[in-house]
């Protein structure tokens, strides 16, 4: 992702996550562990750390998850995992740690108070596809491809299945999981895995415009809405309406809601306080 402000190294994270720059309320985190941008233990810890810091940063309104190189993310680091076959337990403890950390990262994205947008300019497979599906929004360049190919190597993509099945139809999810075949950006758009598919030269601009549009909204409203969206999705219809009604009442009591309504009536731009 090109930046409007000079990118600064994230000195608190391992080299796997080297770009972290905030401009106009939009924080861009770029995965950089070429050639595959694999989700090694170091990469996942770096990503989670950056997301955790963004949670409490009032300057950050939206997070963009981008990548360096031709691959967005190829999933788990299979070489790292295979090396632990030599452990006394044949790798069980390390595999357990890897899957637990991966699940924690994905849930950190979903539970994050700031909207997270994936900017996908290359291949996203297995846990990399899971990463895209876990983001609130995703924009893909023409030429980007997606797959959950674990079935091809005797390892069903069970954890990617969680995010995938919550974002695309069951038939589409099962097709991806059972065949392991790649789908292109246009197919991913039709499946509902991404929001937009654009020419490669338009990816940065499209993501920036989308992020800036969202960043211009009340941060309190964004936090309230994102949390409510995922909470109600797990409820039955009646429970969801009861919950959403309570959220709506509390939202109406907020200073930003009062300001927003007043600004609408008075035909002026609102001044958000985040409260």
UniProtKB/TrEMBL annotation:
Transmembrane segments: none annotated. GO terms for molecular function: enoyl-CoA hydratase activity. Keywords: Fatty acid metabolism, Lipid metabolism, Lyase, Transit peptide. Pfam families: ECH_1. SUPFAM superfamilies: ClpP/crotonase. InterPro entries: ClpP/crotonase-like_dom_sf, Enoyl-CoA_hydra/iso, Enoyl-CoA_hydra_C, Mitochondrial_ECH-domain. It comes from the Bacteria. May play a role in fatty acid biosynthesis and insulin sensitivity. NCBIfam families: PRK08139.1. Belongs to the enoyl-CoA hydratase/isomerase family. This is Enoyl-CoA hydratase domain-containing protein 3, mitochondrial. It comes from Nitratireductor thuwali.
């Amino acid at each position: 992702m090109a930046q409007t402000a000079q990118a600064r190294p994230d000195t608190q994270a391992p080299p796997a996550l080297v770009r972290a720059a905030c401009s106009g309320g939009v924080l861009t985190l770029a995965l950089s562990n070429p050639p595959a941008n694999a989700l090694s233990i170091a990469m996942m810890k770096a990503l989670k750390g950056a997301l955790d810091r963004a949670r409490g940063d009032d300057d950050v309104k939206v997070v963009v998850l981008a990548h360096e190189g031709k691959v967005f993310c190829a999933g788990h680091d299979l070489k790292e995992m295979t090396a632990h076959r030599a452990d006394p337990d044949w790798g069980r403890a390390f595999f357990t740690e890897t899957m637990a950390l991966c699940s924690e990262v994905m849930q950190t994205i979903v539970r994050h108070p700031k909207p997270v947008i994936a900017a996908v300019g290359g291949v996203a497979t297995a846990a990399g596809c899971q990463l895209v599906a876990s983001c609130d929004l995703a924009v893909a360049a023409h030429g980007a491809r997606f797959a959950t190919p674990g079935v091809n190597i005797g390892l069903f993509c069970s954890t990617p299945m969680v995010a995938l099945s919550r974002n695309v139809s069951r038939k589409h999810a099962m097709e991806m999981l059972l065949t392991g075949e790649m789908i292109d950006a246009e197919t991913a758009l039709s499946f509902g895995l991404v929001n937009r598919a654009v020419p490669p030269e338009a990816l940065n601009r499209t993501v920036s415009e989308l992020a800036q549009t969202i960043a211009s909204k009340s941060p309190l409203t964004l936090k309230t809405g994102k949390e409510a969206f995922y909470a109600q999705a797990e409820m039955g219809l009646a429970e969801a309406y009861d919950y959403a009604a309570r959220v709506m009442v509390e939202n109406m009591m907020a200073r930003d809601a009062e300001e927003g309504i007043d600004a609408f009536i008075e035909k002026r731009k609102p001044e958000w306080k985040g409260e």
